[in-house]
Write a structure and sequence with these properties.
four-stranded antiparallel β-sheet, 14 helices
């Protein structure tokens, strides 16, 4: 057997696999001999069928199968040994015909090669690392929300300005059927708020969505519509009133503090605010980190220039799935996948250049930390090491979970590397400002 590679250009190559009779003849003879032992053909005892008859009946099919096995094994071994970094899979070069009566065969395969490039993490960029704070307005709003949440609801017969209403937003055309509970001060449009005054249970209030809130993203919360649909949404929705309540706010006293945070943990409204601020900013930091990671990824995709074997990849896409695609369909699929492929190549290069690896201990420690946090949510604050290790072992016996957790660990490692090496500016914002930055508005 002989395997050679012809470099077409930097991103494409042809590999030729030449197979001789010596590469497959023993395997073919063994398979045919096994066929002969078990063949049942009229006029012959089992195991006594002439080999010439077996050869005539099964020889060509066995030859094709065994040659294909040798071909695939040889090609895979060659790619591994030569450490060729290919994209997609080798594509057989179609020939008009193969003379299966010959003893020697030659097969060509097209290869798409991964490009060579460098990634400059220290390059000039417009990436911003956000420090998101819980400002005083947010803390006061949260304290007020708590007072209302744990307060006393007093049923009322008609809506007044400081009451809460519960009901359902509907719009049949857009498929909206969203239960909601709110006070009238949520509306940026004061005319809308005024239209609720005096209404009773069972009444329906028609509301225009355009300019309804100070931030269109709130439509996601109250109408349950997707982010892609909220901007500039200009439709009429009906709100059917199902309940009207006055809210007698709970007193912010030690009894409520103990109920919320545990006995003696906080002792004043200021300490409640401090606790809310601490917890909120941990969550904000996680969201800011994810945005930073996404923004660096976009910057690297934009700034790291390299060519791809596009023609090869489109041809491969045509035959890679269960159902063959047309050239036009493959073109569309390639356009959708190109950015993701570039990201994978860049990520792989960054990992290789900076020796980022995931060890078993990394994975185990990450999983254990997640489990501890989950158990803490259910009041199990001090689980034993033996208990944690047992759960970790069960989780890591699931290959899908291991893959998901490995991606999380690598994401954390990439984030740490980017924070260290990417030269970004830092900007302090409150949460509302961050949301606008997050969605590019």
């Amino acid at each position: 057997m002989n395997i050679t590679k012809k470099q077409v250009d930097a991103l494409n190559a042809i590999v030729t696999v030449a197979i001789t009779k010596e590469d497959y003849s023993d395997k073919v003879e063994k398979v045919l001999a096994d066929y002969r032992k078990n063949a049942s053909i009229s006029g012959f005892r089992k195991g006594a069928v002439p080999m010439s008859l077996i050869q005539k009946q099964y020889g060509k099919a066995v030859l094709l199968e065994e040659v294909n096995k040798v071909l695939q094994a040889s090609l895979n071994n060659y790619l591994s040994t030569e450490k060729l970094d290919i994209l997609g899979n080798p594509i057989p070069v179609v020939t008009e015909s193969i003379d299966w009566d010959a003893e020697n065969f030659s097969f060509d395969f097209e290869l798409g090669l991964a490009p060579q490039f460098s990634v400059d993490l220290s390059a000039k960029n417009n990436v911003t690392k956000f420090n998101v704070i819980a400002d005083e307005k947010m803390l006061n709003d949260q304290v007020d929300r708590i007072a209302k949440q744990y307060g006393k609801l007093i049923s009322q017969s008609e809506v007044k300005a400081d009451y809460e209403v519960r009901g359902t937003f509907t719009n049949e055309e857009k498929g909206i059927n969203a239960p909601a509970n709110f006070a009238l001060d949520i509306f940026a449009n004061k005319k809308v708020a005024k239209s609720f005054i005096g209404k009773k249970v069972g009444d329906v209030v028609a509301v225009e969505t355009k300019g309804l809130f100070d931030d269109d993203h709130k439509l996601m919360d109250y109408l349950k519509v997707s982010h892609d649909n909220v901007h500039g949404l200009d439709i009429l929705v009906n709100f059917t009133i199902e309940e009207i309540n006055a809210v007698e706010k709970a007193e912010m006293n030690q009894e409520l503090f103990d109920k919320l945070f545990g006995e003696g943990v906080v002792k004043s409204v200021e300490e409640v605010k401090a606790k809310i601020k601490e917890d909120a900013e941990v969550q904000f930091a996680q969201q800011a980190d994810q945005k930073f990671l996404n923004d660096v990824t976009d910057f690297l995709i934009e700034s790291t220039k390299f060519e791809l074997p596009a023609a090869f990849l489109k041809k491969w896409i045509q035959t890679a799935g269960e159902n063959p695609l047309s050239a036009e369909q493959a073109e569309e699929e390639y356009a959708k996948a190109e950015k993701g492929l570039r990201f994978q190549l860049i990520e792989g290069k960054v990992m290789a250049d900076n020796n980022l690896q995931i060890t078993f201990e990394d994975l185990k420690a990450h999983t254990a930390e997640l489990i501890k946090k989950q158990m803490a949510q259910f009041g199990q604050l001090n689980p034993s090491e033996e208990e944690i290790n047992g759960i970790v072992a069960r989780v890591m016996s699931n290959q899908d979970e291991v893959k998901r957790l490995s991606e999380q660990v690598m994401s954390e490692k990439m984030l740490g590397l980017y924070k260290e090496k990417v030269k970004s500016k830092t900007k302090e914002v409150n949460y509302d400002q961050f949301i606008k930055e997050m969605y590019g508005e």
